[in-house]
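Input protein
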Amino acid sequence: MKRCIIIFFLLLSIKTTYGQKSDELLNVHVKKHISDLNTKGIDTVCIYQAYCVGCLYRWENEEDECEFEGIFISTYIFWIENGHSFMTKKDNCFDYSTQKIQNDSIWQFFFRNRDTIVKEEIKMPQFIEVKEGKEKIYSSSISHSRFQQIQIIVGRDTIINKELDDYHFSKEVGTLHQKNINYDYNINSQLKNFQLLISRSIKSATQKQKLIKTRR
């Protein structure tokens, strides 16, 4: 009887773990998709994740409502196959169909600016205050913000793995809305231009033909 109870709780634990819609399990599904692409000989992949820390997620369609743990992350996967560009999407609750992208400007931009993007680091927001006749530089941060994570895999190597924080691209920062002295550098970086290009490509692709989603 004791053995039956142990087995029951073990099965219940496994079912509960795999039934959760968590960001950790989302990463498992993303890695599985990348592995499947590698098996097909596809070795050039871009993973783009967009999420918000401290935000409440609202469902536009009640039928899509889904309980999840952790942070809700929209994940877009781009790859090159037989000379053509493709994308799909995954999030905590859904898998999406694959869509061919007519414009491959993402890859053109990346390989043209690869060396710069690899080296670039977005600077912390900073502002200047004058105290006792001397200028002092202060850094600024916030607890809640929107983020984008960009990962490029070529072959078996991760070429870049960068996280961008929207707050770093604010013109004014701090409680007194001082000028962010790193704004011009950040907003004009090739890394930011690359992120904006990916974002525009996603918007264009999803507007022309909506990805078909399947509840996981």
